[in-house]
């Protein structure tokens, strides 16, 4: 059974990276597949959940593949993101990757050298502020499309991604790793994204306080 699972997972990974090329991530996912299968761990459910979980588990940001929509990942592996999240968590736990313990130690040491504890705490607090604004803006979407359990899993992903983005941006002039991270994600921004706008509720409140009438059609 594991041989069939490995073959199917490999086929899914090959097809996925053919459509969304990312050689470094593909190499990591293939190494994880080989290592995971060597442990002879039971892999219940669809192969797509495990293959997608491997991509998710080894992503440089820990939150999927940059530049690829969750809907595209779901279509490629024929499973929900909820299933992929669960498989990714089990993969990290079983093969002890956790974004590489030695890498985490280097990152920790880098953080001590680049920022004071006060600066780190400030970025963490501001990340939580930004995350709660996003969380509140998503409330209607949450009620209509996400369960409380899914939202609970999404919340730390949002917080950690914001903090990582802020940390990397602020340290990009001192760290080549941070500079590469920022440049990679800037290049990953889809061309079809609209320019950011103020949230409707905030904009309307600002207009009322300023005495300006709301813009027509808004």
Structure description:
With 218 residues, the protein is mainly α. It folds into 2 domains: 2-95, Orthogonal Bundle (Cyclin A, domain 1), CATH 1.10.472.10; 101-190, no CATH class. It has 11 helices and no strands. The longest helix is centred in the last third of the chain and has 24 residues, at 148-171.
Helix fraction by DSSP (H/I, runs of at least 4): over 70%
Enter the CATH topology name of the largest domain: Cyclin A, domain 1
CATH architecture level-2 label of the largest domain:
Orthogonal Bundle
**Helical stretch tally:** 11
Largest pleated sheet: none
User: Radius of gyration over alpha carbons?
Assistant: 20 Å
Number of beta strands: 0
Distance between the termini: 57 Å
Structural class: mainly alpha
Summarize the helix and strand pattern as letters.
HHHHHHHHHHH
CATH superfamily of the largest domain: Cyclin-like
Kindly report the average pLDDT value. 82
**CATH level 1 class label of the largest domain:** Mainly Alpha
Shape, per Cα inertia axes: globular
Number of domains: 2
Report the sheet-strand fraction: under 5%
Low-pLDDT regions: none
């Amino acid at each position: 059974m594991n041989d069939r699972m490995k073959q199917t997972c490999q086929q899914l990974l090959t097809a996925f990276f053919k459509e969304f090329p990312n050689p470094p991530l593909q190499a990591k996912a293939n190494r994880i597949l080989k290592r995971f299968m060597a442990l002879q761990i039971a892999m219940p459910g669809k192969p797509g959940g495990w293959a997608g979980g491997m991509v998710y588990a080894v992503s440089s940001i820990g939150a999927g593949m940059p530049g690829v929509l969750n809907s595209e990942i779901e279509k490629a592996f024929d499973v929900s993101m909820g299933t992929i999240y669960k498989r990714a968590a089990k993969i990290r736990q079983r093969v002890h990757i956790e974004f590489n313990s030695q890498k985490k130690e280097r990152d920790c040491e880098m953080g001590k050298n680049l920022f004071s504890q006060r600066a780190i705490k400030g970025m963490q607090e501001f990340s939580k502020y930004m995350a709660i604004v996003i969380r509140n803006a998503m409330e209607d979407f949450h009620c209509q499309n996400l369960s409380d359990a899914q939202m609970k899993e999404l919340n730390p992903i949002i917080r950690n991604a914001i903090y990582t983005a802020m940390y990397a941006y602020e340290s990009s002039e001192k760290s080549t790793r941070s500079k590469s991270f920022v440049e990679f994600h800037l290049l990953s921004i889809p061309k079809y994204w609209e320019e950011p706008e103020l949230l409707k509720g905030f904009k309307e409140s600002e207009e009322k306080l300023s005495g300006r009438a709301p813009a027509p059609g808004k």
